[in-house]
């Protein structure tokens, strides 16, 4: 145990200083103690202090200036509030963000735009639309959602400018600053952005292999006034789980006993074949269901859907009016044509096959590493050894023109696991294969050096 203590102390010190820099307690431009000064202050060897500073420099948090000392670097993007915390270079392979596309999608769009141009109601697309969408558009969405297991009257549906906009209006309309919202300890960074902007109090719920720790959620709801639970029951981002049906029933039971609203994010749900019924299908009176077409069809098609209890619809509609007035009519027209003519179903099926092939490729190229994910998801979670540093690995990969995400943007608790989240949906398959080989080599080499 005595041999392990210095390494443990070194890691704790790196974590503590990194946290102080990221949270602003150590301001940009601040001069850090000399190596000897840090060693004396912390009771460590000078060589260990040197290693600590080298680690922080590799993470991009400090810079050394010859003859002047070590200084905190300016971090312009708030840490933990988004995935793309560093600009992705034009020549980099992007494993930090998913924008999956299929051959032929542009041709489909070209044809659909011709059909829209030839339609009799083209002039109507130049005017303002009803805030929550035209009745015929909401009817198209209702038919689409029925194929996903949700039977909803079109009056309960709101058309939004993407799923993120759907989440934004949900937070804006239904929650207040200071409200307690239960979230998974690892969750979608876009919801963290909203929580920060609207000053919500996020309470992390520990995660298990199959979903949130429901015992912990029950205890939290019994001790704190939880107003909402944000959850991704079908293909969780970033862990890829699909919550079993029995656990969904228990989650709904907790919500009914303690009163929080369920916010169901289904952005990646289309990738899971034959999942259990959505929460909105089983508990429509206490669930706001949010989904969209950005991931399943194209990131540029900013059309999303919100299904809400009738009593919540007016507030959500006012939030749409306050933010975008209405979803752009032209993109909505394209989306609804594709919903009605089977194009969406066809593309989603092809993307499930594509994601399954990419996940299998990742399993081959990352063999031997402890991957966590779903067999047909566009991302995988890569836990690292206890002594590894995710920031260091991300910086090393960045120098090799590979952009990856660490666990930090996804973390809502005080403990940030050492892990990488790899988005598999952006590079072409051949480039993905060679890139994953590089990722594996860098991870293995780092473990050997550690």
Can you describe this structure?
The protein contains 15 helices and 14 strands. The chain is globular. A seven-stranded mixed sheet has the order 4-10-9-8-7-5-6, sandwiched between helices. It has a three-stranded antiparallel sheet with strand order 11-14-13, with helices on one face. 43% of the residues lie in helices and 13% in strands. It has helices at residues 5-22, 35-42, 46-58, 105-117, 135-147, 163-174, 189-197, 214-223, 245-258, 279-282, 313-323, 329-341, 343-365, 390-399, 429-449; strands spanning 62-65, 69-72, 93-94, 157-160, 180-184, 201-205, 226-231, 261-265, 287-292, 304-307, 379-383, 402-403, 405-406, 419-423.
Average pLDDT, to the nearest integer?
Answer: 90
Number of strands: 14
Q: Strands of the biggest beta sheet: in what spatial order?
A: 4-10-9-8-7-5-6
Which percent band covers the strand fraction?
A: 5-15%
Structural class based on helices, strands and sheet pairing: alpha/beta
Q: What integer value in Å does the Rg equal?
A: 24 Å
Distance between the termini: 17 Å
Q: Give me the number of helical elements.
A: 15
Which percent bin holds the helix content? 40-55%
The coarse overall form would be: globular
Largest sheet: 7 strands, mixed
